[in-house]
Amino acid sequence: MGAVNTPVFYIFSIVAVASAIIVCGFEWVTILVALFLILLAACAAADNNKGIVPDLLPILIAILGIVRIVIGGITTQNIVSHVTGSIVISVPMLVIAILVKNGFGGGDIKMMAASGLFLGLDKTIIAAVIAFCIAGIYGLLILLTRKKGAKSKVKLAPYLALGCAFSELFGTVFMEVFRSFL
């Protein structure tokens, strides 16, 4: 966890708490959202600095997801949404990791499974689309500028964290706008 102890992590943590308060107001959910965003920042910092997401971070995110389910109401619809959110992206990532050498790291997969449990189905899909689009654009820019080769690894946790944070904070509005076009 020493990789998390950086000035960038602390800056992102302050921004995370401020964002949670601005978007959620002073509600009980604000504490959960702020903790989720801080843990995402920790995942991103650890992956960026050491190339690994410590197991403790996805475990803590999963615990927050369970707390969110319990506080939000233990209904079949709520449980199904959050459990489905946990597997909808992480299982395909796991399959790719098994079939393609260096396809995805285990920390990325665990982070997405835990984040999906916290976010629920709709927000998890939004998070993944945003994360993979931004990571893809970054990878393309790296290739075009020839800073790294085609076989270079891209640390994915920072992009997953960004997608999950955006989705948690603005996912509901994003879905409403998207559905208005359908």
Note the main attributes of this structure.
single chain, about 180 residues, mainly alpha, 8 helices
Structural account:
With 182 residues, the chain is mostly helical. It has helices at 7-24, 28-50, 56-72, 76-88, 90-99, 106-119, 121-145, 157-180. The longest helix is centred in the last third of the chain and has 25 residues, at 121-145. Helix 1 packs antiparallel against helix 2 (28-50), helix 2 packs antiparallel against helix 3 and helix 4 (76-88) runs antiparallel to helix 6. The mean pLDDT is 91. It has 8 helices and no strands. Helix content is 79%, strand content 0%. The termini are far apart. It has one domain (2-180).
Question: What's the topology here?
Answer:
Layout: H1 7-24, H2 28-50, H3 56-72, H4 76-88, H5 90-99, H6 106-119, H7 121-145, H8 157-180
How far apart the termini lie comes to: 45 Å
How many domain modules?
1
Large-scale geometry: globular
What percent of residues adopt helix (DSSP H or I)? over 70%
- Gyration radius, in Å: 16 Å
- Strand proportion: under 5%
The arrangement of helices and strands along the chain is HHHHHHHH
Mean pLDDT over the full residue set? 91
Based on secondary structure, the structural category is: mainly alpha
Largest β sheet strand count, sense and barrel closure: none
Stretches where pLDDT is under 50 for at least 5 consecutive residues are: none
Total helices: the number is: 8
- Tell me the total number of β-strands: 0
